[in-house]
Design a protein that fits this description.
Blueprint (H helix, E strand, L loop, with lengths): L1 E5 L5 H10 L5 E6 L10 H7 L5 H13 L6 H9 L7 E2 L16 E4 L6 H4 L12 H12 L3 E6 L2 H4 L4 H12 L3 E8 L7 E2 L1 E8 L34 H9 L4 E3 L4 E2 L11 E7 L7 H6 L3 E3 L2 E7 L2 H6 L12 H10 L3 H14 L1
Parallel strand pairs: 1-2, 1-4, 2-3, 4-5, 7-10, 9-11
Antiparallel strand pairs: 5-8, 6-8, 11-13, 12-13
The structure holds S-adenosylmethionine.
């Protein structure tokens, strides 16, 4: 399975493809992510500056622009720690990928453009008129690469935005690329992961005769407690202020829920999201935990409250053995931005049936 991904993040599709096809049967043709960094240059500026350069020089120049900002690409660091890829197959920015170089070399092309860009798409019509948006570059790469199948993921709001006009434009654009498309809203909680995370999935086939059906929901048999780590470092336990906030703001913070709410990029840093309450236990809670954490009353029980660990957040996105090499704040962001692997696995099995 030759795959290429953009907005690659921590490689949810790469992990899913390894599960379905086996790691050895996966070739990552390329991956791409800015690592949530920006440069103060337009696409035209960079195109002018790189005119006359060969492809390698051009990508090197673009990397230098990004690294010149002094910020590390944490997404790339995570990606390289977990997947088999070389620098030559990594791009910093989708806008500067020349898809013609990969024409007919990709079976599956995947991406979910950051959602802030679709408010712009909504005001326009046709592929050329979507220029300047990251969605445009995703669609442009489909026309250049001509993958057998593409998969596009986004938030459900894309369907309702601007009274449905945004989605209509997007659908028209996908149709104009000559692909047969299918769409569905799927919730991770219907595919084995105790997280209410509903997302829009669009699958497009180059073969217009393809008939595709999305996977059917399954009964959830797991809950949050099945995803918790056995040993948790003292730093994840809350002090008094955090404990008080989390135990008294049920709209922001939820405790010991069976199914967690959608993980978000910034959740654990403003006491937002899901937390774990534990009764004080002299065996489980060592001296470091007891010295640092606040022991308080929650619903009549005395105990401690802690954040989910980054490892737990990765597991709750379907990454069973994710190698984390970045600081916690980045790890939480990357987990919160990802697609749930288990949903992709089920979609891939269905794609496999029709290919
Ligand atoms: C919502 S996340 C998607 C993450 C991915 N779907 C995953 O499974 O982990 C959007 C990602 O797009 C990246 N991004 C934003 N602008 C980009 C650009 N111009 N080129 C490439 N990646 C970009 C961000 O760094 C972020 O990681």
């Amino acid at each position: 399975m030759r795959i290429a991904t953009v907005f690659s993040g921590i490689g949810s599709i790469e992990t899913a493809v390894s599960k379905v096809y086996g790691e050895k049967n996966q070739e990552i043709v390329f991956a791409c992510d800015t690592g949530e960094r920006e440069i103060n240059k337009t696409k035209e500026d960079v195109e002018n500056e790189t005119r006359g350069m060969n492809e390698k020089e051009k990508q090197k120049y673009i990397s230098t622009l990004y690294f010149g900002k002094g910020k590390r690409n944490f997404v790339k660091e995570s990606y390289f720690a977990n997947y088999n890829i070389s620098d030559d197959n990594w791009f910093e920015d989708i806008r500067f990928i020349n898809g013609n170089l990969f024409k007919n070399k990709v079976d599956l092309f995947v991406g979910g453009s950051p959602c802030q860009s679709f408010s712009v798409i909504g005001k326009r019509a046709g592929l050329e008129d979507a220029r300047g948006t990251l969605f445009y570059d995703f669609a442009r790469l489909i026309t250049e690469i001509k993958p057998k199948v593409f998969l596009y993921e986004n938030v459900p709001g894309m369907l309702s935005h601007d009274d449905g006009k945004t989605w209509k434009h997007i659908q028209d654009i996908f149709d104009s690329l000559g692909y047969k498309i299918f769409k569905a809203l799927l919730n991770a909680a219907d595919f084995g992961i105790p997280q209410n995370r509903k997302r829009l999935y669009v699958v497009g086939f180059k073969n217009k005769k393809t008939n595709f059906e999305f996977p059917k929901p399954k009964k959830l048999t797991t809950s949050l407690k099945d995803f918790l780590d056995e040993e948790v470092d003292a730093k994840y336990y809350l002090k008094e202020k955090g404990f008080e906030f989390v135990t008294t703001n049920p709209h922001r913070a939820r405790i010991n829920r069976k199914i967690i709410q959608t993980q978000k990029a910034n959740q654990q840093y403003n006491w937002n999201g899901d937390f774990v309450f534990e009764h004080l236990d002299k065996h489980k809670h060592d001296k470091a935990i007891q010295d640092g954490a606040y022991v308080g009353n929650y619903n009549g029980d005395m105990g401690l409250v802690r954040k989910l660990t980054p490892n737990e957040c990765f597991k709750l996105m379907g990454f069973k053995h994710f190698k984390n090499v970045v600081p916690d704040m980045q790890a939480y962001r990357q987990a919160g931005n990802s697609i749930v692997v288990d949903v992709l696995v089920e979609i891939l099995k269905k794609i496999n049936e029709v290919l």
